[in-house]
Amino acid sequence: MATSGSRGSLLLQAAQLIPFVSFFFTLLLFAAPTVSAAPIRVPDLRECELAVDASVTGPPMTLTLNCCLPIPPQSPINFSFSQYNSEPRVRQAAHKVSEDYIAKYTRAYELMKALPDDDPRSFYTQADIHCAFCNFAYMQAGNSSVALQVHFSWLFLPWHRWYLYWHERILQSLLGDPTFSLVFWNWDDQRDGGNVMPDMFVRNGTALYDENRNQNNLPPAVVRLRPNSTGNDTAIVNQNLNDMYLDVVTAITAELFMGGAYRTGTDLTNSTVLDAPLGGLLENGVHNGVHVWTGDPNLPLIQDMGTFTTAARDPIFFAHHSNVDRLWDKWKYDMPDGPRTDHNDSDFLDAEFYFYDETATLVKVTVRDSLDNSKLGVSYPTMDTDELWINYNPPVMSNGSAVNAARAAGIATMGAAPQNGTIFLGSSFSAIVETPSSPQPDTSKATVLVIQGLELTRNSFVSMSGFINLPFATALTDTSSAEYLGTFNFIPTTNINFRHLTANFKFDIADNMQRIGIENETEVLITLVITGVEPVSIQGLLIEYE
Ligand code: C2O
């Protein structure tokens, strides 16, 4: 009796548990994006993984990458503005500096390259810092099963700002000149000579030269901010202006521009459609575009700039990122609609990183302390040519709504995830998508097309461009018009654990709809164009106010 009684009560307990279990799973499902929400903390540098990588093109090969960082004997210190008081300095455009400045800049890199590899200030270690935090050398503090990654999220801009700051301080100290500053590669300038590889970096045999670059893209080749863009130089210039306009001017929210949340526990190698963060338009659009355009497509890893592992082995990297950093300030302070605000979530503000200072001491910094460049002593000149993309006026190619014609031609409607299975995009995919039925609430700013749960394998370069009202768009379509929404460029990754990507993509479509005159339509026609050979699928399309 006693036995059967206890068995019975066990059964009862199990039955009672069921609602709790399902409640628990429901919680898990809906809480997924913020599980164990806490800011990213500095990792334990003693726990470093050798990254096992494989080539992305050419003959298959496996590489073991060691980007483990040296651990200085002195203990890490916390950053403070008083201790690291910096001389105010203006970073100049690379195509405008004098021969004297180029000589000094070259000398600075000669000195940095002459340091022994295991010196934290050496060019070698400086490049490894980038590899370490993009190639999963370290696990997140407090979450040893999830790798730490500083790309593809709101960490991208602050981390790279700090990276430049310490790199620049080391160069200053090597030169003994606290007024020395990095230059910026003004690739967004489409008129005055900024949109080619700067002359100072292409002088063969100097410390600023890197032979691992696309030899077809040396000067006078004009930068393609969307690496697959076609046409003559005039066509490229207009397409570049539109990419700048979309990635900076119309990307009005912090999430659209700089990417979404990344906290302790966020796992980029294992995301689902519900919790799939991806970096913002600046990172995935023009920033990645310039990386891919610069790297050598004939090398197995598209070195140096075309893959994160090696990108910072090219001195042009730091000039490229100075421009990215400058554009963050442009976005924040100089847009026609007035100042814009960074994320203000405490998990963003309190996120921490390690860098080495000019004495090779490890310094702990926070995102909060990076947000005001003037406190770091850094500023950029106003470039007249910024106005060309800030005021870019994309021409309208289409005439009225394209929805009825598309429906008559058999194009289906697609809603939010989950749909009936995943949808493979092929090289071009069109669908009719409903716009939100209620009017835009006062609290929201953007009308956002969410491409939900996009999946691909980053074995080779892939891009995804969005169009509205243009059902026949292909990879050859000129992207200077108002029907173009922007492009996400996916840099191939050598890290086998990180090749699979699931992410939600966001474009602000309000400005496009207004220019075309379809802002009051209940449905719009969306076309997604894929370049590259990797199959790409999505799980749904949604238009919402954010
Ligand atoms: Cu850390 Cu331009 O990437």
From TrEMBL:
It comes from the Eukaryota. SUPFAM superfamilies: Di-copper centre-containing domain. Gene3D superfamilies: Di-copper center containing domain from catechol oxidase. Residues 151-168, 314-325 form the Tyrosinase copper-binding domain. Keywords: Copper, Disulfide bond, Metal-binding, Oxidoreductase, Signal, Thioether bond. Its cofactor is Cu(2+). One of its GO terms (molecular function) is catechol oxidase activity. Pfam families: PPO1_DWL (PF12142), PPO1_KFDV (PF12143), Tyrosinase (PF00264). Residues 1-37 form the signal peptide. Belongs to the tyrosinase family. This is Tyrosinase copper-binding domain-containing protein. It comes from Adiantum capillus-veneris. The lineage of its organism: Eukaryota, Viridiplantae, Streptophyta, Embryophyta, Tracheophyta.
